Amino acid sequence: MAIAFLRLSFVAAGFAVAALMVFTGIGTARADVEDAFRQIQRDGSANVIVRMKADSGAAAWKATQPAWRQRAAVAAALSKVKPSLANVQVDAVRPFRTLPFLSASVTQEQLMALIADDAVQSVHLVRREGREPGAAVGVTATTTDKAQSANALLSIDVADAWAEGYEGAGYAVAVIDGGFNTGHPMFVGRTVGAACFSSDFDTTTINQCPSGQTGQIGAGAASNCPAGSTRCDHGTHVASIAVGNDGVNFGVARAAKLVPIDVFSRVTDAEICGPDPAPCELTDSGAVLRALDYVNENAELLKIAAVNISVGGSNRDGFCDDDPRKSVIDMLRQKGIAVAISAGNSGATGQISAPACISSALAVGATNDGTGVASFSNFASTLDLMAPGVLVPGASSSGSGFGLLRSGSSMAAPQVAGAWAVLRSAFPDGEFEAMEAALKTSGVRVTRQDSGITVPKIRIARAISLLSGRDRRSINNIVSSSAGALGESFLRFFNNSDEAGAVTVTMRDGLTGAVVATWTSPEVPARASRQFAARALESAATPVANPSSSIGNRTYFNLEVESSFTGFLQHVVWARGAGVFANLSSCESGFSQNTSLTPNVHASSIGGYVSRLRFVNTGTTSDQATLVFYNASTGEDIGHWTSPTISSGASFEVTGPQLEAQTPSLKAAVTGGMSQYNIRLENLTGYVQHVMENTAIGTLIDMTPKCDLGVATSAASEGAVAAN
To answer: Between 285-302 and 325-334, two packed helices, what is the crossing angle to 10 degrees?
Structure first.
């Protein structure tokens, strides 16, 4: 083993690092090395995490390998670096259990020796982290607050997942935080594998494990909650959001167990605590890494489905994959375990805090009322998911109370961790990528004004539907039959597949979101479209048990549509008295990008509402547009039509009556009673716009927007087999 002892006199840490780059060629975690030298210059020593090379045991860190093999690989890697540690008298070395890391306090000479050692892959500075600044402290919930919070949680549709029998049973969620009141009714009999990894690496950092040891495992290890202290407030609240259940109040994975892991220490140094007063509670990257090491070692034994980390360091642009914690998060991901990390509460756009910025973690931001980004939440393209984070109810660390409201991305992340446990109870063998894709695909798109960024807010039952081979799409504010002055709503379903199929509609109250009824359509033939009045759905739908009121008493209702075919959905409204026929389609994932198919073009037999088709040539050369016509009711091919030549960049318009006059087969179908037809655009590089002339009032309405319908994609459902 080669080791270079570089006994140089450096006047500044930056010069020391520059010299080391020349001698060793080190590039990994360069910023950490530079910062470690700066800390040594200031304090005389620095706490570091050393990643050992483990080439011979690399296979041990695959998901298929048991923990004992990983421990053996760690021992082998440690044996190679021990002589170097002894030569430079590095004391109090603490290796990790299943990860090729060790931690130590080092001087400048010792640090230089380590990074020059052939057996060392990289060196990382241990960085202080805390509970996220900027989140609201706990406040007692009023009745109004509780209702608002319940609606926000309803927006992630976890109750629908529970109704299907998926509650996280058989799994556990590890919560890495401060202390936990595990005697709270929300956790009694449901806590397993408690641990503490509080640090004590200097005289101002005081270990908070009950035993006083830096690593304590067993009952009570994470429950150092002195009377009158607030140190267990945050962890208890966060854990209750993830898995709490006292029989009346529930967390997201209400049947899952809790693995509480305390990583916070008491710090007495006012400079380190600032701007908060000393003493304060802080953690560090090394303590969190040890907690993740514990999770990795005990994942199978404790049936851990997900990990929650609601701590944060400095904000980062882009990903921070130089963080040593990425290696174990990668390993957990291979095992199907999600690590949900809060994004931070600085209100930044374009940045999130470490360690959420690790690319293999699930970085979670906070929404306010369930639809918008919370003002305090960091928000960036590196975020993975959103969840409600304003005035979220949870357990109090003192006594047995529930209803304490807290705000922060700390409150959002445990909802994602709990969601993962719920999904895992539905799909024990589901592949990580498929489950992640389902959460993202089924989520409501959330954005911050002027950010240009959208991130999905989780909907758990929707994700389960997608993984089950069902694709549920929302369409909101359908005008009910009781609001006749607003017009009459019609729903159009277009089957773009080669087989006949049907749609199943779940009807929700527009104000509360409560399910009131379900309805299944008649068969829709291939290439055909069917149009249904909202009043027809109301009269034919099957009410749920004991609905709060009849369907027709609502001004608006919202729909969730599950389709057995790929195709399109439109919501149109007809105000007969005003002579207005309008397209009110609104798609949660944006309008369909399919510009070649246009459903429900009006034939000349529908007087007063004349369809106009506008063809735009976006190609570089002149070309013609070819249309194929299909009977809207039957899907029967009824001929085709070719336009005059359209110049590049130009457009051409034709009306429905003109198409009939120029296409004998189309005219014959209209004469035979066909009132609407569907068209497919071929040949032309460009698109078609469908507008309708409301002749009674002289207004043109764009009928082009449509929403996609589709069954689950193979990417989302691959590897996911439902438990039932």
So the answer is: 20
pLDDT, mean of residues 267-281? 90
DSSP character at residue 191: B
- What does the alpha-carbon distance between residue 88 and residue 7 come to, in Å, rounded to a whole number? 12
Distance between CA atoms of residues 657 and 87, nearest Å = 93
> Three-state SS string across 591-650, please?
CCCCCCEEEEEECCCCCCEEEEEEEEECCCCCECCEEEEEECCCCCEEEEEECCCECCCC
pLDDT tens for 546-587 read 444 455 566 778 888 888 898 999 999 998 888 899 999 888
Query: Is residue 112 scored above 80 in pLDDT?
Result: yes
Helix axes 409-426 and 233-243, enclosed angle (nearest 10) = 30
Mean pLDDT for 676-689 is 93
DSSP structure string for 507-533: EEETTT--EEEEEEPPPB-TT-EEEEE
The secondary element (H helix, E strand) that includes residue 96 is none
pLDDT at residue 28 is higher than 80:
no
Measured CA to CA, the distance from residue 305 to residue 325 in angstroms comes to 18
CA 595 – CA 46 distance, rounded (Å): 61
**Which ranges in 375-509 belong to alpha helices (H)?**
409-426, 432-442, 460-467
**Which of these, 423, 413, 420, 421, lies nearest to 378 by C-alpha position?**
413
Are the C-beta atoms of 256 and 426 separated by less than 8 Å?
no
In terms of DSSP bridges, do strands 637-642 and 626-631 run parallel, antiparallel, or are they unpaired?
A: antiparallel
For residues 387 and 399, give the distance between their C-alpha atoms in angstroms, rounded to a whole number. 28
Instruction: Please choose, from the candidates 250, 196, 235, the residue with its C-alpha nearest in 3D space to the C-alpha of residue 421.
Output: 250
The top-scoring range by mean pLDDT among 363-372, 445-454, 603-612 is 603-612
Residue appearing with tokens 């004391």: 91
CB 601 within 8 A of CB 613: yes
Question: Is domain 13-126 annotated with CATH 2.120.10?
Answer: no
For residue 127, the 8-state DSSP code is -
How far apart, in whole angstroms, are the C-alpha atoms of residue 406 and residue 408? 7
* Calpha distance 297→197 (Å, rounded): 14
Strands 338-342 and 362-367: parallel
Longest dimension (CA), the chain: 98
Instruction: Say which CATH class 139-467 falls into.
Output: alpha beta
- CB–CB of 563/711 below 8 Å? yes
Tell me the whole-structure pTM to 2 decimals. 0.78
Q: How confident is the model at residue 64 (pLDDT cuts 50, 70, 90)?
A: confident
Q: Which residues contact 216 (CB under 8 A, 6 or more apart)?
A: 195, 196, 209, 210
Burial call 336-346: b when 16+ CB within 10 Å, e when fewer: bbbbbbbbbbb
Mean pLDDT of 595-621: 93
For residue 147, which amino acid is it? A
Strand intervals (E) in 229-373: 257-262, 265-267, 280-284, 304-309, 315-317, 338-342, 351-353, 362-367
CB 141 within 8 A of CB 227: no
**Lowest mean pLDDT across 12-16, 121-125, 295-299, 636-640:** 12-16
Domain residue ranges of the chain, discontinuous segments joined by + = 13-126, 139-467, 472-709
For tokens 């809790």, name the residue: 258
* Domain 139-467 in the same topology as domain 13-126: no
Cα-flanking dihedrals φ and ψ of residue 112, to 5°? -65, -40
Residue 275 preceded by cis peptide, ω within 30: yes
pLDDT in the model for residue 345: 94
pLDDT band at 1 (very low <50, low <70, confident <90, very high): very low
Q: Which tokens is 694 given?
A: 């409301």
* Res. 207: pLDDT tops 80: yes
Q: In the chain, pLDDT over 90 holds for what percent of residues?
A: 61
